[in-house]
Design brief:
Two copies of one chain form a homodimer. The first copy, chain A, is an alpha+beta fold. The first copy, chain A, has a single domain, classed as Glutathione S-transferase Yfyf (Class Pi), Chain A, domain 2, CATH 1.20.1050.10. The first copy, chain A, is 52% helix and 7% strand.
Chain lengths: 217, 217
């Protein structure tokens, strides 16, 4: 099976959670809109990313990972474990929305500069209340049995350290940090992360560095 | 199997999407925190609702419905259809976050009164841009094969008409309206909706009526 991933070509965004799984498993896939003029939009998906797998068109990041997990050896096949991992992945999705909304609390369609005051308010509370709560939850939830959730947690830590270096430096999260280091050392992941296929973080993605939204150093 | 639903006892909220499925299927369940002092919080779930089903503890609304769907006769058993319905349910979850954030764009932990100016900005763009986009997507996606997604779309329309009566009156959505009417007439659902088990909409839930956030009549 050769998978086709449809996502915006210029950002890591939500598509990156799927790319990490495909890359770690060395699964044959095509990132369809990279280096082309194709749009990742489709009437069947409310928003990118979606995955084409044979006749299937699967929208929603967590749904894609639910499907891919057992096929890529990144999730067990039994239902109880799949539901547990999926619950974690959906909570990562919620977390990611809150990260996005630190810089776009009013509307995704407005520029950051047009909602900067609101962003400061939202980001401050995100960093003081929500981030510690999510981190504490996943610090307990991350376990030794490797799965696509571990890849997604790597990406969350990577993105948060990019966006909020000061706030992250003050936090203690030994298990998530260890997971982050382990994932970065996985041979296929390491090769991917240092390749041109890995799009650098930038000011169009979900994780953005606006120093005024971070804590003071 | 007697299911146990854990959710906040005073609001419809996310728990209602699960209640509608359980009620429509006449499934034996206990709404554990109703009429008791128990809290629906658990270290295993980042946030309520979660469902206990035998030894399983399933967090995240859409995950619960993914599990319950085929068991309650509200989703087919084949994977392609389940993934399709789940993709729709996850998009409903995204929509619901945006509804919530119309009145709480800065933080769930602050009072509405402390983020009213931001709420007006966010709600106006939600009503002009996002609501029509979600409605148009689901107007096409809703089909004749009944499922838990149809119950959730009933709840979305019901809640939006409560929160934004003026904006909703101006919108055309014949299929979603027809689905809303059909669901309300299903015998078990009708019995549930007129029972005391159905918590009325109120100013603590996700759908709230703040006239200043709605369009003018």
């Amino acid at each position: 099976m050769r998978y086709e991933l449809y996502y915006w070509p210029g950002i890591q965004g939500r598509g990156e959670f799927v790319r990490l799984a495909l890359e770690d498993a060395a699964a044959p896939y095509r990132d369809v809109c990279r280096g082309s003029n194709r749009t990742p939009e489709s009437p069947q998906a409310f928003a990118p990313p979606y995955l084409k797998a044979g006749k299937l068109l699967i929208p929603q990041t967590a749904n894609i990972l639910l499907y891919l997990g057992p096929r890529l050896g990144l999730a067990p096949r039994n239902e109880a474990q799949r539901l547990r991992l999926h619950g974690l992945q959906l909570t990562i999705a919620d977390w990611l929305v809150e990260v996005h909304d630190t810089h776009h609390p009013i509307a995704a369609s407005l520029y950051y500069e047009d909602q900067r005051a609101e962003a400061r308010r939202r980001a401050a509370i995100f960093l003081s209340e929500r981030l510690p709560k999510f981190m504490a939850y996943f610090e307990k939830a991350v376990d030794d049995k490797f799965s696509y959730v571990h890849l997604s947690l790597f990406q969350m830590i990577e993105g948060l350290q990019y966006a909020f270096p000061n706030a992250m430096r003050k936090m203690k999260f030994p298990k998530l940090r260890k997971n982050h280091e382990r994932v970065a050392r996985r041979p296929r992941l390491a090769a991917y992360l240092s390749s041109k296929r890995r799009i650098p973080f930038n000011q169009h993605g979900i994780f953005r560095r606006y120093p005024e939204l971070d804590e003071r150093s």
